[in-house]
Amino acid sequence: MGVRSFSIGYSYKIRKSECIANEAYFSNVSCVLKPINWTRSVMNMDCDIKDILTDIKMTVEVFYKDSSNLYKPFAVKFSFDICQLLKNKTKRFLLEKYAMNHLEKWTNVNHSCPFTGHLFAREFHLDEVSLPTLPFQDYKIAFNFSGDKPSKHLGLVFIYFEVLEDYYKNKRINPRPK
After folding, report:
1. Rounded distance, CA 64 to CA 168, Å?
2. Mean pLDDT across the stretch 129-139?
3. What does the DSSP 8-state code read for residue 175?
4. For 20-138, where are the alpha helices, taking DSSP H only?
5. What are the angstrom distances between the C-alpha of 49 and each of 44, 58, 77, 141?
6. Rounded-to-integer distance, Cα 85 and Cα 101, Å
7. What single DSSP character describes residue 1?
């Protein structure tokens, strides 16, 4: 399945990704960014689970890059229990539905807990259709995963992306003088 491009005057391009896994729970961790064209790139992630993972929670936070090149919190931070959402597929709020639709679409996280074996994400990308319009600048999304009670740190995934203006879409075409 390829990446579909839907141009509405801007695009989201992933510039960099980082996967930081707790080695006590994961092995063979890879996080690869693949450029598609000037305005699109996709991310592929893989890891092997060493033990059984139950009661997985995820916190998502968005940051923007300010004029001093530091990332500052940008209005969005939410947490949810992945196992509960996969178990109760009908009782979801808007952000939970959005996150779970993306997890189920691009990963093999498509069944209820516990998780064992190999986890992967294929062709993960940020698209203009499902994300809100953001100002033109650089952003970072931090996904923080934790597990069993009491909370144990499982890993972090950072996605650095830029909102780009579609030059050709917004370019005014002036007729040639006669």
Report:
1. 25
2. 77
3. P
4. 82-87, 94-106
5. 17, 17, 27, 23
6. 11
7. -
The identity of residue 124, as a single letter, is: F
What domains can be seen in the chain, in order of their start residue?
A: 10-169 (2.70.220.10)
User: Is 33 in contact with 112 (CB distance < 8 Å)?
Assistant: no
Distance CA 1, CA 34 (A): 15
Q: Does this model's pTM top 0.85? A: no
Question: Are 45 and 125 spatial neighbours (Cβ–Cβ below 8 Å)?
Answer: no
CA 20 vs CA 61, 85, 112, 171: distances in Å: 16, 24, 24, 41
> Pick from 158, 136, 174: which is nearest to 10 by CA?
136
CA-derived radius of gyration, the chain: 18
Contact between 162 and 137 under an 8 Å Cβ cutoff? The reply is yes
Helices and strands per DSSP (H, E), number in the chain: 3, 8
* Average model confidence (pLDDT) across the chain: 83
